[in-house]
Amino acid sequence: MKYLNENQISELNQAKWAVCYTTIDNNYKEVFNKIQIPVFGCSSFQGVFTPKGFLKGTHFLASYEDDNIESYAVIKKTNSNSAKEIAQEAIQEIIQNIGEPTVLLLHATPGYEERIIEGIDSVVKSKIPIYGGSAADNDITGKWFIFKNDEIVTEGFLLVGFKAQQIYGAFLGGYLPTDKKGIVTKASGRVIYEIDHKPAAEVYNKWTNGAIQEYLDNGGVILAPTTMHPIGRLIDEILGVKMYLLSHPHMVIKENKALSMFTEFKEGDEIILMTGHKNALIYRAKQVIDRALGIKKNEAIKGAINIYCGGCVGAIIKDIDQVIKQYNYSLRDAPYIGAATFGEQGCFIGKTKQNRHGNLMADSIIFC
Prior knowledge:
There is one protein chain. The chain has 368 residues and is of the alpha+beta class. The protein has two domains: 2-172 and 279-367, no CATH class; 176-275, Elongation Factor Tu (Ef-tu), domain 3. 23% of the residues lie in helices and 40% in strands. The protein is built from nine helices and 27 strands. Strands 14, 15, 16, 17, 18, 19, 20, 21 and 22 form a nine-stranded antiparallel sheet that branches. A six-stranded mixed sheet has the order 1-6-2-3-10-11. The termini are close together.
């Protein structure tokens, strides 16, 4: 496998296939038109993770014949109503073409990632791990997209099946639980109305010692003041290590002091306030790769796909080169690319396998 950029298209066209991430502020359409191999990916927030830095432009992880990695990509236009059914069709198409894949890469446009995962899992019964992240733009104005070659989709998803002898993955948050917890007593989709029978925004504000005080009366977007304080749900535990799914509070809804989130909740969910620190977010780039490789840390790495939350990138942008150093060190200078995404998908592998959609998280797929 090789890392290549938009100025190396002739070398790229000798590959078998490539994963591609791009920022929205460049000539990506011209680049796509020159490509003669299967290429697929999504738009990324502010930059693309590469061995040479967090860079603007269009970047590739190319796979060649001697890597012995099969891929098959399906791109679909859909909305929340049809996402589950269309996802069932997509995974069936992948299986028909390459058999049951070792791992799946998912890139969706933000909004209904849970439905897509439900559709996939209803066919493969959660046996196949899903990793990925939701397409992003530079300023949360909806300019994000997914693509397969020159087909660009602004509402839908890209699903890629990879099949090889050795592919590993991991999904983690890098935040720690606090002692603040409660039960969701009223919720619908991605809105939490009440926690312990009290307005959700008021409870969250109290838990965080006033982090969103100025929004309680007038409402508004609260992404910045909540990035270091996501809501967590305990999903699984293995060898004493607890696995939390994270959710990023998005808005305070003025009328009822509800919290709009970027993941779905249901009544009865036990939730816990999590807390983060800049150093922990930087270090998790190494952690997620170490967890993916597990005891196989000495195995030769062909390449990797790294997904890192765009909200966390915004919080540590001045130190983003430290994240690159963590990736380069942990992957032992193997080629990779990575996207900064607006939602992350991954597989919790504990007592059971569970594919989930979360926020403010990181995941990696490693080819050995």
